[in-house]
Amino acid sequence: MHAEISFIGLFLEASVLVKLVMLTLLALSIASWAVIIQRNKLLSSARVKALRFEDTFWSGVDLNRLYKELIARGNAISGLEAMFVAGFKEYTRLSKVNSKSPEAVMDGTSRAMRVSLSREMEKLEHHLPLLATIGSTSPYIGLFGTVWGIMNSFIALGAVENATLAMVAPGIAEALIATAMGLFAAIPAVIGYNRFSTQVEKLEGSYANFMEEFSNILQRQAYSEKEAV
Questions:
Q1: Rounded to 5 degrees, what are φ and ψ at 65?
Q2: How confident is the model at residue 22 (pLDDT cuts 50, 70, 90)?
Q3: What are the transmembrane regions (predicted)?
Q4: Which of 3, 22, 41, 63 pairs as cysteine with 9 (C-beta 3.0–4.6 A)?
């Protein structure tokens, strides 16, 4: 293709404002793909870890031993592991001072696990608003560049006596590239946001179910310890 109708040629011939729009959209597209790759890796890892921990938890392992193993790992725990550690730690602490009040023990334990759940969800939802923002604003940024480029083309066209399509075509083409780049940045961001939001909701449901099941186990243990006192 000739230089004047190639992408690079059209970019170089574009006005300063249209160039800024194109560069902005390129930066947004790069940021969008970086978030998509990072979130996909994190959420995939979170699903695998949740399944692996549930298999271990329901295998009949001793909860005290499991707690000590997770504590030994320090800050390397996340997801269901972090919720289990938060709940079991609070349960153990409260059981020592409120052994005759299972309700108080379980209230404190449930609060600790809810706080842990909230923190884990913040980690999973991190950067998703950025994808939503890119997906919703990129088409309009591209459209702004297109309108500006076409406006300049017609202004230049009105300044000549013998206007031809060949004179205005490059200006319109460079303007339309801005719209194309806006869609190129927006479409993956919208798809990624919707996909990751669904995955986060499923993980949140899995975490909440585990929290209820674990609470039931601790509640039975709390009442059995009360009866033994």
A1: -70, -40
A2: confident
A3: 16-37, 128-151, 171-193
A4: 3
